[in-house]
## 1
Amino acid sequence: MGFFIIGINHKDCPVEVRERLHFTSQKLQDGLAYAKDMAQFSEAMILSTCNRVEFYGYTDSEGLPEDGFFALMKEIHGVDRRDFEHYLYRYQGREALRHLFRVAAGLDSLVIGENEILGQLREAFQKAHSAGCLHSLLYRLMEKALKLGKAARTETLINEGAVSIPSVAVELAEKIFGQLIRENVMVLGTGEMATLTVKNLKNAGAAIRYVVSHSQERAEKLAAECGGEWVPFETWEKKIPAVDIFITATSCPYPIIKYEQVKKLMAERHHRPLFLIDIAVPRNVDPAIHQLDDVYLYNVDDLKSVADRNLKHRGLEIAKVEAMVEKALASYQSWLEQLEARPTVESFERHLDKILEEELGEFAKKSGIPDTRKDELRDRIRAKLLHVPLTKIKEASQNGGVARYLHALHSLFDLSPKDKDQE
Amino acid sequence: MSLAFVILSAGCVSYGVAFLLHVLSFTEFWKRGRRAGSVMLQTGFLLGTLYFLSQGFQSGYFLPVVNMSAALAFFAWTLAFVYLVLLGKARTESFGLFLSLLLCILMAGSVASFGHGHGIQAMVKDHPYLLNPTFVLHVVSAFFAYANFAVSFIASILYLIECRELKKKSVSGFYHKLPPLERLERMVCLPLSWGTPLLLFATATGLVWAKHAFGSYLLWDPKTIVTLVVLGCYLSILYRHWVAAVRGKEMAVLSLIAFTIIVVSFIETAFLFGKHNFL
């Protein structure tokens, strides 16, 4: 049957089911070991992320080896097939290949073009390889998929621009300050969005200096996670001159950062740029502050609109990446068809060699030409006879028409079963 | 057709190709265009170097200001030197795009005016005081100073464009291509801090040479006066940057204004009387 995929993803399957089917590191090892021992799978790989669980495999059996897959899920997760069967999608052959390439290129992701999936796919590939579940076909296929995923991200704009509010904040900070290595961050409030933004900034290299909150406990928890110190709400203003990136996310119903205050501050900072991220609703920062030179104020709507525009830009690149997927698909199928054609071609070559050896041997004996001359003549005739059919087979492998040529070879030259047995 | 003309034309073509490749990269038609464009910029720079070496060997003198063609080619060469050698690590796609266009225009002007005006031999014969080493130092340091100011000027334009984009909160394709503000700010300030001492040195050597050639330190021609004004401007900008620690948009605006004065001074040099309108 060949290559197949069975899986679930974020599009149809609810998170409650996905989390039950998620493979932890240990479960993944067990799952791969189980798949390796199953006769139904000649090769296997499992990709498990927060958005998808997919089983990739090669099988020699006639139909889709669903039973093996359900048995594996039952064994590893203890989940009955009835609990998730209706969320499953199944691909085989060309459609399966296309799906894998689309996953690698980020076209099947929740956020189009996201980079994480490529790393997750690479990790799944390495783990399956270490577990001994991969052989030539799936190995070559995964190499191709990873190469395509990389090319899609470097040769198109599919992953350009941040598309979530915290990552937009980081992207803007990097646009203002360059690489975040010295920039000091202060956060007012410890809400979910503020925490996420702080974590993203820290991961990008910024130094979290001050966490301002009425709740010492929550502030210290965040400070322990991301660095920095707790500052009581009453005294945060004293710390602001040292800050380059300022996040506000309090529930205060009026602006707590005023125009005059920042104007004075900018003079003290000698117009060193200041980035204010106002995630709060109602807003915590006076909007007029954005008019000051070297001050960049973004509220939650601004961040969201940047994210939306970036997402729209990514959408414009989809056609380009789809074309890359189709090209990779054709290239892999061509390789696969050439591989499948090899036994027949070898059989044909043996058939030809046999005739040439018999006829030329007799001719050489009668005419008395030396063996070297005979071999030279044989090689030349062989090369000339094989050139056109082999070229045609190679060409046909690029558009999926190899089978009829192989069939013709078998019929026309009556390639014997003995040849097939030798294969 | 002389060898010098061929080299000069090849340099012009290299910069033109570099510009086209940068455009292709910028418009996403060919993502690798930036790297190829950078190679073509370097090729243009090497051809420029070859041109001046061949000119020097041919005439025995190094005087890149005897005519308009040589002056434009030398200014293009100094600009490329500042960008490729001094600011090598700070190179960016958007900057390369602007600079390759400017270099192409300068070199096209140089090729178009090739063969017009005075030859080196004739110039030296009529004005032997041009061979004074102080004059060569004056010319070279002045050109390098102006090249630095031009680089700072381009960086200022990019800085202000990016600043505007960030203020508008709009994400255009151009915005994604611009380097971070912090890097642009460095490209505004660094050339200023190299260019200003060079201009000071050029002014000092110019005064010494004027005394030697004409018997007076100050010639009081329009170019000299404007140069003193420009020097004053750049010194005050550097003072604000180093002492008052001013940075950001103000530095970009100041650099822009000061370079505009330089451009005006060159235009008036071309039309007014004085010792500097020999081109």
## 2
Amino acid sequence: MDGQTIKTLVAIFLAAILTENYVLNKFLGICPFLGVSKKLDTALGMSCAVTVVMVIATAVTWPLYTYLLVPGDLGYLQTVVFILVIAALVQLLETVLRKFMPPLYNSLGIYLPLITTNCAVLGVTMLVLEKGAADPSFGYLQSLVNAFGSGVGFLVAMVLFAGVRERLEECDIPETFRGLPITLVAASLVAVSFLGFGGVVDRLL
Amino acid sequence: MNFITPILIVGIIGLLAGVVLAVASILLAVPKDETAEALEEILPGANCGACGFSGCSGYATAMSKGEAKPGLCSPGGEETAQKCAELLGSGDVSVEYKTALVHCMGSYDNTTDKMIYDGIESCSASTFLAGGISSCRYGCMGMGDCVRACEYGAVSVCNGVARIDPQKCRGCSKCVEACPKGLIKFVPLKRQAVVRCSNCDKGRDTMQVCKIGCIGCKKCEKTCEDGAITVQDNLARVDPQKCTGCGKCAEACPRNVITMLEI
């Protein structure tokens, strides 16, 4: 692997976290973002599970698309097939976790099925293919790194927001804003702050 | 109109996924503890922790392993204990009912406030200010955090001190957690002596702040024939397992702080 490829991979990884963050820039996966970010440890666990699912899903769906659907002119089946594969993968992950890591399974339990219908996971698998269509050098490895970076970006966003929410607990919030309204306002402010990272990755490398 | 191929492809992928999952569920099966699951169905499912385990599933698992006996579930009561015992085949069990008890009798007849408090009407809040509004730094402040915590209406504040109705108490332990001074503790629901005081200061200091507080004179300890009541840290404490409910310590107490819990 030459220096240029490594540079590109690092750029892809950083871009997925900072400038193309799935939650804060692309606004996917808002449901778990708002739902699970109340406590730091659940946020951490959930985002780790999402990262694993994202990477494995991309690992399975990318070859499926490139070597099965595209040659057969069946690109339109993308959505259906990907959902099938992701659902099966999450079930498999749940079974594996229950067998080999019971404490983690117990703490994440209900959140795992939630990841199945999470649009962020489907988004990663599909958007990564768009990138591949636009740039031929964006192959399997690049897609995997992108998926991993997206997961890490999800983690960063969740953990940051969990911290923000914990601070919000102690604030004196007006009656009309308590609960979901102030959370949404805070989330949008965090998203605005991430705009500040625009251009960092291009300049960095 | 080549629609066979896509249908086939999606169908095959679905089938493959199904097969993989089926195989995985067999190969990676976790042996289910059926007894524990059945027991968990019987338990009330309140996850209150009164039994001392981490929720109903914790208690069910402990019972199926033989680490706990049925009858520890206060909210479940007699019926739950019987059903659990039947399932486990361990015969009849008697439920060890518990009630929460406020270990303080510092009403306004016996003690005073040491300050005029103008703040948040909550015991947890007032504790931050020099240990609370009550003259006795261990005592009940009577602002009702425990009253608000109780979902069964068993706790009330009378004349500046909290008291619990044993008939209504379900042993859910919410009031135990709510009291910032740790005055509320569980006692078994049987006739026994209870020392309704938590003051660990020396006798002289206690007398200055409360007319009824325990001074640690040890008269009760000397009177008890079963060794159920001992004085530690200037405070008399009763061991409910040893107490026979004879009432001799209550008669002997010069401060009248020992009372008999009647059911």
## 3
Amino acid sequence: MDFLLQGFFKAIELLTTGDPETFSAVYATLVVSAYSLAVTLALGLPLGFCLGYFDFSIKKQVRVVVDTLLSLPTVFIGLLVYAFFTNRGPLGEWGLLFTLSGIAVGLTILALPVVIALSATAVESMDRQLRVALISLGANRQQLVLSTLWEARHGIIAAGLTAYGRVMTEVGIAMMVGGNIKWQTRTITTAIALETNKGEFAMGIALGLVLLMIAFGVNVSVSFLRKRY
Amino acid sequence: MESPLYAIRGLTHVYRGKPVLSIDRLDLPRGGIVGVIGPNGSGKSTFLRLAGFVERPTAGEVLFDGKPASPFSPEVRNRVTLLPQEPFLMKRTVLNNVAYGLRIRKASDHLAERVDKALSYVGLDGKDFAQRPSYALSGGEAQRVALAARLVLKPEVLLMDEPTASIDALSAQLIKDAVLKARRDWGTTLIVASHDWQWLYGICDTVFHLLKGRFLGTGRENILFGPWERVENGQWGKRLADGQQLLVPKPPEALAAAVIENVTIMPQAEPVSGAAGQVTLSGLITRLALEKASGSIVVSVLVANLPFTATLTEHQVRNHELYPGRMVAIRYNLNSVKWV
């Protein structure tokens, strides 16, 4: 057990002394998770709203597909994205393989079903009287959508948090699409996997602590915003 | 002659393949108070949602102020508002709920003051209530806040679906006072669906009776529901709980509803002669209500467990010494029974 304790103290040292390799992985993780979450929310919230709000003939079938995509294996997404972005692939000329942008694309595919499914559930669970109340108070179509999303905000925040948790802790896509290149595409999770294989527990534990701190910070911020609004 | 505020033409509304409302032609006047009465499931809420432009009818059109209108139409969006039976308040403070309609109209001047005034209309103290979250309100308070959110808009038309159902007597009275004040101060047209007949007859210029999705007329009709069966002498009718027989002509089907427009009320002490084709029943007067528009008095009589109403003049009521609690006889002609 000593190596764990030593690893913990080493982690504190790496973080407090500003170890560049550690901070490079932290930076890569924050960049890819921020990009992918931004795109996921921009695409997923409108789609989730439509799925939860409107009744259409194939709604149940679409719901089954989205729910199935929730359990899409990350290595399969990694494989698909790799296949598309490799030089022989249809999108090879975009040059996204082994880049942070490439990882962000894969993570977006991973997180999109999470945001669609959970925000659809949040909107669906709203009281049907909300629509009547908003229209009768004079809301136009745009105000109806925005006010409904605002009313479902707690469920939507939960969807965003869950998606962020998935992209932050993902390792398969980052490894396959990013290539785990030091100083370039090495994220916290791929670095932990590598350092553990090398027997360098201190670095792994340090990066694990950083992940925990980011998660803690995000949750505290969200909790503060929830109380306020 | 002034054009009607609402002109409904050939309207049909279907819900899950089943017709729930059908109105060939209906005009509603500007600035009036219109009551809609009818049993549960008769289409009252559907009518209010369509007249409140919250839903679009399956067929037909609703003209508002002479122009065809539908949900989100600029002609109606800021002029017509509906207070549903179950008030829905957003997850916000009372202030933000009441101010919502003003904010989306970008009419945020003196917001707190206007919200305060609207709350005072419904008997709520703005200082005490404005910052309360909506989930911390009782049912009656929530209903009053929902009404304040409509009144703050000074609507041209206010539609209310059972506004006083399932709330305490004080809240009900405050709501009644508030809507009448809106009518008085701003000339708001009120369209109210309620089971509170006494209140409706007391305030309404016109009362409509809605049954099975159809308007039957003035609301003075007596509607009797089946099942009907053959009783003595081959006649059709039903045996009431107190042993009396309610007779009707042959029904089109066992569960058809019978409409009796003209019911006569006589003091039971007087001899009742049952002419041929006439049915006489004994019942108890339960209430008298003044019909504001005509000055007539609506007399409600309970025969066994069936309510009947008749409209009499003040002179007739006084002459026959009719008062709640008195046993009387009611009479109707079999030929006057219609089926719906």
## 4
Amino acid sequence: MTKKYWKGIDELKETPAFLETKGQEFTNPGSIEEFLSDENLGESSTERRDFLKFLGFSVAAATLAACEAPVIKAVPYVFKPENVTPGMPTWYASTYYDGISYASILVKTREGRPIFIKGNKDQGFTKGGVNPQIIASVLGLYDGERLTGPKVNGNDSDWNTVDAKIKASLASAGSIVFLTNSIISPSVLRAIEEYKATYAGKLEHIQYDSISYSAIRKANLQSFGASIIPSYDFSKAKVIISLDADFLSTWLLSNEYAIQYGQRRNPDGEWMSKHFQFESVMTVSGSNADQRAMTRPSDLANVLNYLISKKVGNVGVANNLSSDVKAVADAALASLASVGTQALVVCGSNNEGLQILTNKLNQLIGAYGTTIDINNTVNLYKGDDEKVHQLVSNVIAGKGPDVLLMSGVNPAYTLPNGQEFAAGLKKVKTSVAISAHMDETASQATYVCPPHHGLEDWADFRAKNNEYAIAQPTIRPLHKTSSTLESLLVWLGKTGRGGKDSKVAYDYITATYAQMGLVDFNFAVHNSCTPVLSKETAPLTFKEVQVAGLPKASDLEVVLYQKAAIRSGEYANNPWLQEMPDPITKVTWDNYITMNPKEMEAVGYATTYDQENGLSLATLKVNGNSVTLPVYPMPGQALKTVGVALGYGRGANGEKIGKSAFQTKEYGGYVTDENGNSKPIGANVFSMTKFENGTYNYYNSGSISSADGEYIIAATQIHHTVMARHSIIRETTLGIYKNNDKEAYNPAHTLQKLDEHGKHVNVPVGEFDLWEEHPVEVVGHRWAMTIDLSSCIGCGSCLIACQSENNVPVVGKDEVRRGREMHWLRIDRYFASDEEATIGTRKSDDIDYDNAEHPSLNPKVVHMPMMCHHCNHAPCETVCPVAATTHSNEGLNQMTYNRCIGTRYCANNCPYKVRRFNWFNYPSYKKFTEVNPAQDDLGRMVLNPDVTVRTRGVMEKCTFCVQRIQSAKLKAKIESRKVEDSDFATACSEVCPTDAIIVGDWNNEASVVHKSSKEIRAYQALEEVGIKPNMWYKVKVRNEENKELAALQHTSSPH
Amino acid sequence: MQKEAAIREPLILGHKTYHDVTEDVCRPIEDKAPRMWYILFGIALIIGLYGVGCIMYLLGTGVGVWGLNKTIGWAWDITNFVWWVGIGHAGTLISAVLLLFRQKWRMAINRSAEAMTIFAVFMAGLFPLIHMGRLWVGYWTLPLPNQFGSLWVNFNSPLLWDVFAISTYLSVSVVFWYIGLIPDFATIRDRAKKRVSKKMYSILSFGWSGRAKHWNRFELVSLVLAGLATPLVFSVHSIVSFDFATSVVPGWHTTIFPPYFVAGAVFSGFAMVQTLLLIMRKAMSLEAYIHTKHIEYMNIVIMVTGSIVGTAYITELFISWYSGVEYEAYAFLNRATGPYWWAYWAMMTCNVISPQLMWFRKLRRSLMFTFFISIIVNIGMWFERYVIIVTSLHRDYIPAAWSMHYPSHIDIGVYIGTIGLFFVFFLLFARYFPVLALNEIKTILKGSGQSYKESPEYHKHH
């Protein structure tokens, strides 16, 4: 029996209504037509107005739903300029010259904006060598305080007015002086010759360098009868003896020398040079020396005399050298004996006597013709100190010329008597300053005529006799500035103004070019330079001359030196350079008195410092001038000397020299003095230089006394030794390196494990894996880097290039002091301590850690560039709760800014401490308005559009320039080939003068980086942590004898 | 009914009747608050609001207002976090573990200990939130399905485990605490005269009627929750310790951390309970319920956990030497003799030496001394976390990156502010909530009450 189910009472009772509808699927048969035709429809509850309301709402809702966030439109070119493709960079070969540094460069422009400068490795004698100033100069283009047009007595004017007035002044002048920096432009020199012809007898052209090298020219005039600076070739010198010459960073054409030097610092090369440095302040060159002697300026002559008399074969030479200095001098002599003429002596002093002695020693060695090319002379540094001094005296006395035209100089700042000169300038009838800023000199001048920035201008150069170079504009002039050459020609009455698209300078330069007998200007522009055959000159012969006026000893010798970043102060307004840590002290945004910590302890000055504990202030008195500055404990500073860097104290009278040139307060805004003027950074010590024996000298005698209070400095490194950690720094000597196998100086980290027979065996730590291996070993690319500690000279170019390429924010002194600088790449600098046989190698197992914290009296130095190691077992990756930092299948440790929530756990867990956190919103927070270029509309133009500007609260770090990797891959893909070494370089490796940084695809076994990582000197810092970095360092090899180290680093039997 | 030996010290002193217990607990709620309460509440509120102001400034400006730097990414923030979580440990231990072990003396203290736990975990939870660079996207730490692509959280990260551990701990603690409060709220509801308070307490008491069925369920739920909460006692601080233990930082990378952190947490939690209860029993006249014996018991816990912590410290030191790891050895040498030696020795003195004084019966039964030591222990435990976090980070692998940490006034403001907020919550609790588990206390009144122990009826049975 089946149960019967019924749906309702109707079905059970089988009502007629139910039966009627039983067969129909839809009980209500009404159609839409019927519904609409219902006449009562109008009376239904939904009225017309409601209907319209619904309709209106629906339309509005649909419209709103279709809306998106506001669209910012990128307007395409109506007429696309040739060679400009949005998103693609255009590179221009050009030339850089600022009166101090010279280089053949390549300028990267994006959508018409220059954003990056690097050296041109293929063209020009600088061979790609650049320095931090050159790389950072691109920021100067976008300096908001650069003058935008000419000024008359400090008021805005226009070129027509100024031109007319200057022309009139020139016409009526009885005497005219052109005071310029060293002019190496054949065209400008030609224009000046035309002036001389026009104003015959009335016009004098005096060249003036902020840092003078005139002693070299004067000495050569004495020794060879020609006022020249020769070409030096450090790549040919097996022995380099430098006396106070920081030839790797600030001396003469240091960017050229650094390249040459780097070629011979490879212990695997044919030979490795041996570098002796005698100096007072520890410089970049001194820090790279194989042996360094702490030598006072007054002892340099003794050293030279000792070397000379030993070299000529005198025995038992009487000397008053200290035993340390003598030991280095003897070592230098021993080395000289074995290298024949392949040696070079350079002296950084601007004392004519010392330079004559240097010539004599070079002559004895036979360096002329091997390492010194006296025929191919350097045309830079033509300053004539005697003429300058005479002019300055005249101006101060009110006997100045009727018209004083100054170009590329800032004598009111750089003269020992700059303030008197500034006052005297007011008495000159007509003074014209060709200056980009209302600087110390320009603010006193009648007319200020701003020149183009170097990247906006046509210019030609002849830095050395055998090379002609051209700078081409890479952007249309931003402001109403004018080419210096054009201004000169206009005032000469040769031409009129050409406006923004002026061809005046171009035409004149092409004419000069033709006059020189050179051909194919466009090809020269393409290359940026072209060789010039120099006329045969009569051979120069050396002659003995008497030496007089050598530096005299005093109780306290004051050495006025240049820092690698700021040099003589031209770039005091460049925040990148201000924030670049000094290669030796790691201090930013300040100058200070350097003193040996041993002497500081004796007088009770603080020798340690950090965020809250400052250094002791002291007052230094020289020439009746005094400055009060903090005293910095500089290991290796010669005893009884102090050093102070030039180039600080710019804008002391409130001159508008740039936004970042002044001290800023903790919460933003400038620190002001009682007059409401912004306080300058550091103090100007040009007043302590002296004019003596016909040259400006950068040493003096003085006295120091402690001043009240302490001063907090901002340093990026407050601990100075490596604490004998061999896993971080590995150093050996050339002798050990050549005579022992790897285990001696570069032992592998091993751990014990049980082998299959149950025996304990030592295996490399690399065999242990806590995690599953990232599949980067053979598949696809694996980007990697090697850094050779032997080659790295610590110049800081990589750091600035990285900042420029990756939009790294500038954070200002207060934040650096708090340990929050944002540099993705830093250069760790380690001094040796007395506990170490050499840096990173402990003398015995039982070391005194307290003692290991203190640098030795005259320590060795290692520079160690440090950035993200892109570990294959990255500790940062595992700890991020939101997976914002992850590993790419190309071995890169990637940082996804968008995903980062800012726990900083990754930074804590990074053994290298290379992660940088955005503590504030650097592109907008008020604290950084003065320092961070990204905060003003003009400064923002320097940002690299390929790299995100990071917001507040996210972590960032080195990416191995992933944007460049991507474009290299794309390029190779378009050309249907594999990525090659030449396709890709990071910004840091690209500008490295010594090729210490090598990057590439490690999975490509033919790549340079792969081979480099397999060299016996290669090691991974902190390898035993097990993080498997994609980065190798190479053991620092010093070309010295070190018995203590040799006893520790030896392999009894090579296996 | 509870039966226990006559020679045992009674847990409830004086001749308390069931009604007396109700009166004693409800009186502070029903009476007007004393002047002192308003004064304390005012002070706590001002401090708390200052802290809130500091947090607002922090959120508006950036984490840079703290004293952190490129080397030291965590300092006071995570120190305070671990400190508060540690303090929040005692509550669950008392209510869950001691319940399972049938320690009746816990009944006098469990309510306020749990309240303390919850408020401490509130304070603790604040720090991981505000220490983030971008709090507004902090919800990304939750494994939520999303449309950001297929983005998921990183289950490898101990920080993520923290999120789960802390939120679980907080929710279980709140539920456990609240379940215990229901019968007591009902008692207050039944006595309430004012309409508003009657309404409020009747909502809070969930319609509790006191029927046997209710009591039966109450007991069951308590037991189940105690079972659930017990593992949490160990898990929470173990997981917090994983933040450090799973890292590669010398001084953090230590397998001893989980037990060491749990012991330290119980240690500091009990110390905080002591601090609070010693004041509360006086202020609210609860001397009969929380007396020397309770204090002594807790002091014994402090002594035992303090000894565990001390052993852990010594073990760490030994291992740092014995391991032969250069960085580990230096990290500990640096702790003891480096620039932060004072923090290390403050920690050692407060946490290792001071609890050992509890071996003396006289001292551990002295209320003044106990109060003093409880403060010392909490100072010591704050320093412990500071030492672990800051002295490990400030000098780790690369000497060039070594740094020092200096707190900013915002660091200090936020920390002090959380103490203020904690007391705001605790004072509100003391004012409106039954501070003793009055209905539970009644269950031991006969077994452990002094009057019953002394009564002839009691002796008749023994």
